[in-house]
């Protein structure tokens, strides 16, 4: 099935699967969906998460110590697909865990689990032909990142090979929360609109209802990751599902939009 945003703006929620443990990850995922998440990015823990900030790095380290593997993430995806059929499911991974089991094996397993799309954080569009062929064979949508520093020619290429939605990065650097939505974000979305009719989801630093309100002015969806992973870390396994559900519900509360600044 194709990725769909049922609300405006759509909410894309990132979770590091296996932190604090697989069973709690499942409970958190269900709570997130029931609170209004349109799409879940199921983060595959990796031992060297260079593109992530300290919050997600710590979560990934904990999940790796717990022994969480790609197969566990796919199994969780399969369970979520059965229990919440309409949610969008994205495998969010570095390339190494995918290559470890092989592109073909991964794509076949992801299709069987009911995954909709895949985002590989360290794979660029220009080097993705074999990867995209494997995904296409198994009816999976490739999602790519677009950065404010990308020239228009590169944005055009990203738009050409993307499906589902395009993940626009609000600023360069690693993941993590920030006080305000970067001013470059609006310009990036405007530039992307010239090359695609796909939905555009804006991420990196979105952490409260005010941010979501700003994003709603010009993008189709907001991606919330580090703020939720930090909440899980602070809440502990017992309280995390309820805390995450409450947080996501609050992101939908109408607020007076603030002007984005650099």
Q: In a nutshell, what does this entry contain?
A:
The protein is an alpha/beta fold and 262 residues long.
Commentary on this structure:
This protein is an alpha/beta fold. It has a single domain (10-251), classed as TIM Barrel. It contains eleven helices and nine strands. It has helices spanning 22-35, 54-65, 70-83, 95-101, 103-113, 129-137, 152-161, 184-193, 209-216, 226-235, 240-251; strands at residues 10-16, 39-43, 88-93, 117-120, 141-143, 145-146, 166-169, 200-203, 221-224. It has a nine-stranded parallel β-sheet with strand order 5-4-3-2-1-9-8-7-6. Helix 9 links the parallel strand 8 and strand 9 (221-224). Helix 1 (22-35) runs parallel beside helix 3 (70-83). It starts with 9 loop residues before the first strand and ends in an 11-residue tail after the last helix.
Give average pLDDT, whole number.
91
Q: What's the tally of helices?
A: 11
* Strand residues, percent: 5-15%
CATH architecture, please? Answer: Alpha-Beta Barrel
Using only C-alpha atoms, the radius of gyration works out to: 17 Å
The biggest beta sheet is recorded as: 9 strands, parallel
Overall body shape: globular
What's the helical proportion of residues? 40-55%
Name of the CATH class: Alpha Beta
* N-to-C CA distance: 37 Å
Q: Low-confidence segments, ≥5 residues, pLDDT <50?
A: 173-180, 256-262
- Assign the CATH superfamily: Aldolase class I
The tally of strands reads 9
Number of separate domains: 1
The ordered H/E elements are EHEHHEHHEHEEHEHEHEHH
Strand line-up of the largest beta sheet = 5-4-3-2-1-9-8-7-6
At CATH level 3, the topology is TIM Barrel
Structural category is alpha/beta
